[in-house]
Specification:
heterodimer; A: MetI-like fold; 2 domains; about 75% helix; B: mainly alpha
Chain lengths: ~325, ~300
C-alpha cells in the first residue's frame, strides 16, 4: 500500500517524459494516483447523467409520436419531415436568423466603438468604463421589462409630443417593428461582453506600432483601418461567432418584450422548442431541437476552422 | 468620485493603460476632450434606463398617470418598496436565489478546479485527455436542445427545485470553467508540488494547500461568472422549479406581467430590488469584477 502510493507520487513527471511512446502510456496508466480519478469521475458521472442523457433521450423521442404523456410509438423521421412543411417553425427560423444576423452586426459595431473610446486618451476612464459594463450584471429579463414600459408607454407619449406619428403607437405591438426593439435591448445587454473582448484585443496591440504610424503621418482613421482592424481581427472573429451562436438561442429578452407576439412575429426557435413542454407536441419539438442542435454544431465547426486558421486561442 | 477612482487603479488589467496614460501625459499628450464628451454622451444610453427605473419605482400610480415616466417624482413614494416586498414575498425569493447562487458558485469553483487539476497533471494519459474532450462537448449542446427531457428527468428524481437548478448551473458551466482553469494550472510549475510530496503530502493535500490558493485569480473569474449567471438566470429556474413558492427573483417578476396589472410603480420597485444585489456588488467590487471578466475574455 505504502509502496504503491509512493510510486504514484513520482508518476506525473515520469509519465511526462514519454508522452508519445506506447510503453510510456501503459506505465503511467498503472502508476496514476487513484486520487486523480476521484477528482474527475464523479463530475463525469453527473455530467453524463444531467447533460448527455437528456440529449440522447431527446434524440430518441424525436423519432416517436410522444406527446409528453401517455402512449407512444416509433414514427421514424416523420417529425423531421413535418417540420420542413410547418410554416410556423420555418417562420421562427427565418425570424431567429434575421434577428441573430442583425444583432451580431450591431453589437460588434457598437462594442468596437465603445472599446476604441475606452482605450483612447479620455478623462475619467475607469468611471466611464464602470458605467458601460453595468448592463452585463443585470438580469436580461428585468431589463426587458423596463424597456417594455419605455417602448409601449414612454416612447409613444414622446412621439406624440414631437409629432412623430409612426411611433405614436407602441412599436412592440407593430408586427414589422417589434423585432427592432428586441435587437435594441439585446445590443444593450450584450455589447459590454463583446466590448471586453475588444478591449483585450486593443491592449494587445503594442503602442510602438502606433508610434511608427504617427511618424509616417497616418491619420487616426487610416491607423484604424490599416493597423488596428487587422491586428484585432482574431478577436472580431471570436466575437462574431460567439455572438451569433448566442443570439440564435435568444429567449429571455423576447419573453420580457413581446412574448413572441404580435401574433407569432417574434417567436424564436428556442421559444418554439420550449412550447413543446406544454403544447402536447413534445416529440415534434424534440425533432426541432435536434435540427437546431445540428445548425449550431455546424456554426461551431466553422468557428473552430476559422480560429485555427487565424491562430487565435480560445 | 470618478476622478479618485481613476487616480488609483489597482487591478492588474488597469495598470498598463494607466501607466501608459501617465507617461503620455508627462510627454505632453493631451487628453482628448472631444472624445471624452462623446463617450460620456454614449454612456447615457446605459444610465438613462437605470434612472428611469429608479424614478418609476419612487412614483405613486397618480404620478405615473399618462406621462412619459421620465420626470423625477415629487414627493418620492418610498412605500412602493414595502408593498413590493410583501407582494413578491421578497425574503423568500431572495433566499431561494441566494441558495441557488451560493451553491452554484461554490460547486463551480470546487468541481471545475479539481477536474482541471487532475486533467492538466495527467494530460498524457488517455482517460484524462478523453474526459477533457468529453466535457468540452457540452459547449456545443445548447440548452434548448436538452431542456425538455431534462425537465422530465429532474421531476422524476425530485430535483424539480432550487437544488436541481444548482446541479445544472454547475454542470452547464463546467466546460468553460475547466477550460479556464486548465490553462492556469499548466502555468504552475510541478516542482512546487514535488517538495510537498517529498514531505509526504497526499494529492488531496497538495491540491488544497498549494494548488487551490494559487488558483486565486482564476477562482475570482470563475466565481464572478457563476455568480452573475446564477443570480440572473431565468430559463432554468422557470423551467425546473415546480413550486412557485421556491421561485427565484427574476422569475418572480413575471408576476407583474399579467394582462390586468397596471400597478407599474409596484413593479418597478420590485425590479429594482431584484437588480440591486448584482448592481451593488458590481459597483463595490468593480475593479475586481472587470479584471476577472477580462481574464476570462483573454483566455
Amino acid at each position: 500500500m505504502t509502496t504503491t502510493s509512493r510510486v504514484a507520487q513520482t508518476a506525473p513527471p515520469a509519465g511526462r517524459k514519454n508522452p508519445t511512446s506506447a510503453a510510456g502510456t501503459v506505465r503511467s496508466k498503472s502508476r496514476i494516483d487513484p486520487t486523480y480519478y476521484w477528482m474527475v469521475v464523479p463530475v463525469l458521472a453527473l455530467f453524463a447523467f444531467f447533460i448527455t442523457l437528456p440529449a440522447l433521450v431527446g434524440v430518441f423521442f424525436s423519432l416517436t409520436n410522444y406527446a409528453g404523456y401517455g402512449d407512444w410509438k416509433f414514427i421514424g423521421l416523420m417529425n423531421y419531415v413535418n417540420i420542413f412543411k410547418d410554416p410556423a417553425v420555418l417562420q421562427s427560423y427565418v425570424f431567429t436568423f434575421m434577428f441573430a444576423l442583425t444583432t451580431t452586426v450591431v453589437v460588434n459595431v457598437v462594442a468596437l466603438a465603445i472599446a476604441l473610446g475606452l482605450n483612447a486618451k479620455i478623462k475619467w476612464r475607469t468611471g466611464i468604463r464602470t458605467v458601460f459594463f453595468i448592463p452585463m450584471v443585470l438580469s436580461a429579463l428585468i431589463v426587458s421589462f423596463v424597456f417594455n414600459y419605455l417602448f409601449s408607454n414612454t416612447l409613444p407619449v414622446l412621439a406624440e409630443r414631437f409629432g412623430v406619428t409612426p411611433l405614436a403607437t407602441s412599436i412592440l405591438a407593430n408586427e414589422n417593428l417589434a423585432w427592432l426593439a428586441i435587437v435594441l435591448v439585446t445590443v444593450w445587454q450584450a455589447a459590454p461582453g463583446a466590448t471586453i473582448i475588444y478591449l483585450a484585443g486593443l491592449q494587445s496591440v503594442p503602442s510602438e506600432v502606433y508610434e511608427a504610424a504617427d511618424l509616417d503621418g497616418a491619420g487616426s482613421f487610416r491607423q484604424f483601418i490599416s493597423l488596428t482592424l487587422p491586428l484585432i481581427l482574431g478577436y472580431l472573429v471570436i466575437n462574431v461567432i460567439l455572438g451569433f451562436k448566442g443570439f440564435l438561442g435568444t429567449y429571455e429578452i423576447i419573453v420580457g418584450l413581446t412574448g413572441g407576439g404580435p401574433g407569432m412575429a417574434t417567436q424564436s426557435v428556442a421559444m418554439r422548442i420550449f412550447s413543446g413542454f406544454t403544447g402536447g407536441d413534445y416529440s415534434y419539438q424534440m425533432a426541432n431541437a435536434v435540427i437546431y442542435f445540428l445548425i449550431t454544431l455546424l456554426i461551431s465547426v466553422i468557428q473552430l476552422r476559422l480560429i485555427q486558421r487565424r491562430g487565435v486561442s480560445l | 468620485m470618478t476622478a479618485s477612482t481613476f487616480a488609483a487603479p489597482k487591478a492588474a488589467e488597469a495598470k498598463a493603460p494607466a501607466a501608459k496614460n501617465r507617461r503620455s501625459n508627462r510627454e505632453g499628450f493631451k487628453i482628448n476632450w472631444w472624445l471624452t464628451a462623446l463617450v460620456l454622451a454614449a454612456s447615457l444610453t446605459v444610465l438613462l434606463p437605470l434612472y428611469f427605473t429608479v424614478a418609476m419605482a419612487l412614483k405613486s400610480p397618480d404620478q405615473i398617470g399618462t406621462g412619459t415616466g421620465l420626470a423625477w417624482p415629487n414627493p418620492m413614494n418610498w412605500e412602493n418598496f414595502a408593498a413590493a416586498y410583501v407582494a413578491t414575498n421578497f425574503p423568500r425569493a431572495f433566499m431561494s436565489t441566494a441558495f441557488v447562487t451560493v451553491l452554484s458558485v461554490l460547486g463551480s469553483l470546487a468541481s471545475s478546479s479539481l477536474v482541471a487539476y487532475a486533467i492538466a497533471r495527467n494530460w498524457n494519459h488517455r482517460f484524462f485527455r478523453g474526459s477533457f474532450v468529453y466535457l468540452l462537448s457540452a459547449m456545443f449542446i445548447p440548452f434548448p436542445v436538452i431542456i425538455l427531457p431534462l425537465i422530465k428527468q429532474t421531476a422524476l428524481l425530485g430535483l424539480d427545485n432550487p437544488a436541481g437548478v444548482v446541479f445544472l448551473h454547475v454542470l452547464g458551466g463546467i466546460s468553460f470553467n475547466t477550460l479556464l482553469y486548465i490553462a492556469f494550472v499548466r502555468s504552475i510549475p510541478v516542482e512546487l508540488e514535488e517538495s510537498a510530496r517529498m514531505d509526504g503530502a497526499t494529492t488531496w493535500q497538495v491540491f488544497r494547500k498549494i494548488i487551490f490558493p494559487l488558483l486565486a485569480p482564476m477562482n475570482a473569474t470563475v466565481g464572478i461568472f457563476a455568480f452573475l449567471g446564477s443570480w440572473n438566470d431565468f430559463l432554468l429556474p422557470q423551467m425546473l422549479i415546480a413550486d412557485p413558492a421556491l421561485q427565484t427573483l427574476p422569475v418572480v417578476q413575471m408576476l407583474f406581467q399579467g394582462e390586468f396589472n397596471t400597478n407599474y410603480s409596484l413593479a418597478f420597485a420590485s425590479y429594482l430590488m431584484a437588480m440591486a444585489p448584482t448592481l451593488v456588488v458590481y459597483i463595490l467590487a468593480q475593479r475586481w469584477v472587470l479584471s476577472g471578466v477580462m481574464r476570462g475574455a483573454v483566455k
